Amino acid sequence: MQTKKIEIDVEVLQYEELTAPDRELIDVAKEATKSSFAPYSRFNVGAAVRLENGVILHGSNQENSAYPSGLCAERVTIFYANAHYPDIAPRTLAIATFAGGDFLSDPITPCGACRQVLIDCEKRYGKDIAVLLFGKKYIYKVKCIRDLMPLAFDEESLV
After folding, report:
1. Which among 88, 105, 107 is positioned nearest to 47, based on CA atoms?
2. CA–CA distance, 15 with 11 (Å, rounded to integer)
3. Where are the alpha helices (DSSP H) in 14-131?
4. Distance from C-alpha of 44 to C-alpha of 130, rounded to nearest angstrom
5. Taking 90 as the threshold, does the pLDDT of residue 129 lie above it?
C-alpha cells in the first residue's frame, strides 16, 4: 500500500494586507450578497470575478423551493463571465457570505459542484484562477482552484 500526502498553501491575510485589486474584488463580492435570493437558507453568498482584461463581474446565490434548482454564487458568476466574455480568462474569484445579520467571521469554501465547474474553467482557459475567501477575522487566498480540489474529476477521467 502507498500513501499519498496532498498539501496546499493557503495565505491567511487581513483585509489591509490584500493588494488594492484584491480588496476591490472582496468589496464587490460583499456587495453582491445583497442581490442574493436565499429565502430558505438565509445564507446570502456573493461572488466577484476579475477577468484577464480587468473587467469585474459579480453574482449571488439564487435559491428555488424545488431544490436543487437554485445555483450558488460562484457558478452564477463564472457562467455569466463565460457567457459574456467567452474568450477572456477569469483570473481571481472572491467569495463572501452574509448570514444572521452579518458577514461570517470565518471564510467559507465553494461546494463540490462549484469546485468542479471552476476546475473545468481553469482547464478551459489553461490558466490558474486565484481564490479569495472572505471572513471578518481573516481572508484565505489560494493560488488556484485545483488546490481546493486536488483529486478532481476532469476530461482525462472520461477516457
Report:
1. 107
2. 12
3. 20-32, 73-84, 112-125
4. 22
5. yes
**Dihedral class, residue 42 (left if φ above 0, else alpha if ψ from -120 to 50, else beta):** left
Query: Has 74 been annotated as catalytic?
Result: yes
Backbone angles phi, psi at 47, to 5 degrees: -135, 150
Reported pTM: 0.94
SS3 128: coil
Q: Which of 52, 74, 122, 155 is catalytic?
A: 74
Q: Which residues pair with 96 in a beta bridge?
A: 46
Render pLDDT for 71-109 as a digit per residue (tens, 0 to 9): 999 999 999 999 999 999 999 999 999 999 999 999 999
Q: What is the DSSP letter of 71?
A: B
The residue with cell 488594492 is 20
